[in-house]
Amino acid sequence: MEIAKTLALFVVTAVCEIVGCYLPYLWLRKDQSAWLLAPAAVSLALFAWLLTLHPDEAGRTYAAYGGVYVTIAVVWLWLVNGQRPDRWDLIGSAITIVGMAVIAFGPHAKSP
To answer: What CA–CA distance (Å, rounded) separates 64 from 22?
Structure first.
């Protein structure tokens, strides 16, 4: 159950980061309203707070989170941008998820 909770927390964290970066992108590159910056700031603050909820050391959390972020970004490419991921996107995502699992769930020595 701990693995499922960790993965779910990583996914929510990634979505918050992507939303927090995507909304300013819409404003800057797609001529959308500057009002998008307010929910972007809230989303990025939520992203930072969510990273503090992980029980592991910050560096290990950030390293493992990166694999989930890459995969969620590819899903975002498909669902939000309407571009279906190709096999290279899928292979790259699978590699990052394997790396995330090794970092997050490997038998690390405990800190003193």
So the answer is: 22
pLDDT in tens, 65-88: 899 999 999 999 999 999 999 999
Tokens 């038998």 map to which residue? 107
Predicted TM-score (pTM) of this structure:
0.86
Greatest pairwise CA separation for the chain in angstroms:
52
Q: Are 64 and 103 within 8 A, CB to CB?
A: yes
- Any idea which residue has 């909820």 for tokens? 53
The DSSP secondary structure of 18-74, one letter per residue, reads HHHHHHHHHHHHS---GGGHHHHHHHHHHHHHHHTT-SS-HHHHHHHHHHHHHHHHH
Residue 25 CA to residue 88 CA, distance in Å, equals 25
